Amino acid sequence: xLATLTYEELPVHAIDLRSKVRQFVEQHLKGVPASVRARxxxxxxxxxxxxxxxxxxxxLTLPKQYGGAGLDPYTxxxxxxxxxxxxxxxxxHWIADRQSGPLINRYGTDAQKEFYLPKICKxxxxxxxxxxxxxSGSDLASIKTKAVKAEGGWVLNGQxxxxxxxxxxxxxxxxxxTSGTSEDRNKGLSQLIVDLTAPGVTVRxxxxxxxxxxxxxxxxxxxxxxxxxxxxxxxxxxxxVNAELAFERSGPERIYSSxxxxxxxxxxxxxxxxxxxxxxxxxxxxxxxxxxxxxxGMSIATTAQLANGKSPILEAALFKDMGxxxxxxxxxxxxxxxGSEENSTVxxxxxxxxxxxxxxxxxxxxxxxxxxxxxxxxxxxLGLR
Amino acid sequence: xxxxxxxxxxxxxxxLCVPSSIGEIEARGDASSIWGxxxxxxxxxxxxxxxxxxxxxxxxxxxxxxxxxxQYSLPTPLGxxxxxxxxxxxxxxxxxxxxxxxxxxLAAADGGKIISRSTPFGKVSDWLMGNIQGKTYLLPVCxxxxxxxxxxxxxxxxxxxxxxxxxxxxxxxxxxxRNVGALIWTPMMAGAMSEIMKMVLxxxxxxxxxxxxxxKFQAIQQQISVLAESVQAATIAAQMACKAGLDKDNVLLIAxxxxxxxxxxxxxxxxxxxxxxxxxxxxxxxxxxxxxxxNEWRLDFGSEGxxxxxxxxxxxxxxxxxxxxxxxQYIDPRERVCHG
Lengths: 385, 340
Fold this sequence. Notes:
Strand content of chain B: 5-15%
Number of strands of chain A: 8
Radius of gyration of chain B: 20 Å
Shape of chain B: globular
Distance between the termini of chain B: 30 Å
Distance between the termini of chain A: 12 Å
Number of domains of chain A: 3
Strand order of the largest sheet of chain B: 1-4-5-8
Order of helices and strands of chain A: HHHHHHHEEEEEEEEHHHHHHH
Oligomer: heterodimer
Largest sheet of chain A: 4 strands, mixed
CATH topology of the largest domain in chain A: Butyryl-CoA Dehydrogenase, subunit A, domain 3
Structural class of chain B: alpha+beta
Largest sheet of chain B: 4 strands, mixed
Number of helices of chain B: 12
Number of helices of chain A: 14
Radius of gyration of chain A: 21 Å
Helix content of chain A: 40-55%
CATH class of the largest domain in chain A: Mainly Alpha
Strand content of chain A: 5-15%
Order of helices and strands of chain B: HHHHHEEEEEEEEHEEHHHHHH
Shape of chain A: globular
């Protein structure tokens, strides 16, 4: 059943970090155009990530002994919010910071933690996630990539697809079958850390409709992995993946993906200050702001549950579904507002930002669990028999 | 509001708000049968300051009070009365015992007449709190012509005073009645929506077609998820506004909440009725008590458009640098304080 989420304000200690983070981002993004910043957390910039690491902001929730910042979820919320609000290019370290690092911290051996976590915190090791396969998207339990025991460890064969930034990452956390057959579905799956420079690994970029190519196919042909490629328990891969879903789905990245477009449009409207804005435009601004404010409140309330050691998987799924719809709808509303202008003075940069965001927007509700799957999950979580 | 108080109010409302009783009250246009119990319970005094004899409940605590009123479709203006009584007490007036309605729709007409059209709870109230002639008054309904709006089952009424009544209570200043109304109505609506959610889940599990409960069908599941999201959003919106309270600096948060919850009404009602089928639009079934109220309450104290316009204009008038910056500088109370 749905827990009654209770709204809380962000604690003061989290808010105190805000101006510092904002200044950092402003400084490092000077001159970067909106149409580039519109990539949001898909924007990859290794040197930016290294600068963030120097500032102590990579590995936000990882322990200080490994170079992490040891921060609580509220503080992470504020930092991420400041990053995303300006479209900072956080992609390089994003996966490691948000999922892979915490996974290794939670399930890893001491040796694994000592090996990987400091590299993550210094933005020296970038991670990607290997889950989907050509025949296994939403039906993740049907994956066929297989690791069999061999001398020294494992031999890996198979293929992953839609692996964001595999071409620029050193490591992949891959969900693979280590025992049983496909009929066993989510049993017999494990998570393995794959060094993508290993022999037998081939990475091929896939260009998307905006001209970017962060997606990849990754092929494994008899890739040899040592025993310590296994993270956590053998056969517990499914549970381990699911344990993180509340973290992945509850953050402000599920409502701010199109914020650069929104802010670019708002700045454009301000530049027209001598012209009186029509009531439908004024209302649209208010509609977007009211929806955004409430969604932000939902994210904070869900983050509060995480901070209190709970696992709000249902609430996070619900928030992600509603948030990503908002991210998409606001683009359409703004498109219409722009398209309805008489004697339009809209500049090229706004148009480029608009069209980029419009074209990439379907991915907001595909990534991290598709809309239709999430809604089915939510319904079952509500107790529909 | 502490759990004891909340449970106690809930038990009272469970007794008083049996659907058949609500139906009778709506048909008769008279809630005196339950007002006595409400008055005696003391819940209408909760917002009065402690040193003036009340419970000194904050707006944040009052979220539960208002929400329960909505959840149980209470056919009297308990929320508005609680607020009005706190004002009366603070200003040293005697507390009136009858139910007090509130309206932001009070207007002057020719010859000194005062009209309040579509007054929420107008049929079942002894007083109306509203702004006229530059001040806030409590006007006695007994001195008004009470006109039925002709809307089936509605507790609204048009109220007409030929002139300012002698028994009017002049509160001596202009209170932000529209903001207050929005702040009370938002948790009422969220409460009604949470009750709708429960009914929908129960029905989806209980009703079977094609050999299984309808809640097993994907199309129904998708809709119910959307409903759950809407109800969660409405609840959070109302909590955010109540937590911030009535301070004039918080008007944009009130605007946000009333706009959002009003906007969600269509979706909530539409899904609720879709899941319940034809039975859901009958008088005998109880869904309509909730969905009819939501439709009316959406329009009270401003539906989404006017509050969105207020927010939008506030953005254009501000010096904020983008949506999040605006939110942090002008809407979020704690962020505003932290960053000055």
